[in-house]
Description:
mainly alpha; binds MU-OXO-diiron
Amino acid sequence: MLSTKMENALNEQIKNEFSSSFVYLAMSAYCDEQNLAGFAHWLRMQSQEEYGHAMKIFNYIQDREGHVVLKAIPQPESQYGSLVEVFKETLEHEKTISQMINELYALAVEEKDYPTQVMLQWFINEQVEEEKTASDILAQVKMIGDNTSALIVLDQQLASRSPESEDK
Ligand code: FEO
């Protein structure tokens, strides 16, 4: 059985993951408007992945016979100045999410909630990957600068991202 404190914190994280999903979907729309179909696709896949993260916690609360509370998510930005800005924000966003996951883990330790610690280990690993990917793409976008040919190549590469498998 989840403690009330743990349950509240996990419900808050469901909101944060759905909020991430919305942020990336908004970024995807921006890229689509810039005729960057590959970037738009990559961000749409990222949005779906965040939806999956929210549902992972949603399912976990239910498995522990807890009570799911879906909270309102903030409206994301709809305008971005540049691709560099999009990926700077992506990296900062992922760092913030990593901090949130770490705080959840610290709470699970404090509450002596071992199953939640095990569940959160998946997220801790995932955040290492998420930060690295965002950082790599940001570095590439910065390197490309005004080089349109290089931008088209990267756009084509990002177009090949496939959806995450269910258990990932
Ligand atoms: Fe679910 Fe990108 O953190």
